[in-house]
Amino acid sequence: MELLRQLHSDESGQGLAEYTLLIALIAIALITVVTQFSGKLGEIFDSATNELDGRVLP
């Protein structure tokens, strides 16, 4: 019974696990946003490139 109590109160790896989950959630959110807006992001970069080249496509 004492062993179970010790295992339950042992939190030595908890911080690393929490940071790992946080980083994974942020990565998933970024991938989702980039995927959803990839077409619009492409248009923005194309427009910026054309403006910097000095020519604007209609």
Question: Can you describe this structure in just a few lines?
Answer:
By secondary structure, this protein is mainly α.
Quick tags:
3 helices; mainly alpha
Distance between the termini: 76 Å
Largest sheet: none
Q: What is the overall shape?
A: rod-shaped
> Low-confidence runs (pLDDT<50, min 5 residues)?
none
| Average predicted confidence as pLDDT | 81
Structural class determined from secondary elements:
mainly alpha
Portion in helices = over 70%
Percent of residues in beta strands: under 5%
Radius of gyration: 24 Å
Structure description:
This protein is mainly alpha-helical and 58 residues long. It has a domain at 14-53. The chain has helices at 2-9, 14-36, 38-53. The protein is rod-shaped. The mean pLDDT is 81.
Set down the secondary structure blueprint.
Elements: H1 2-9, H2 14-36, H3 38-53
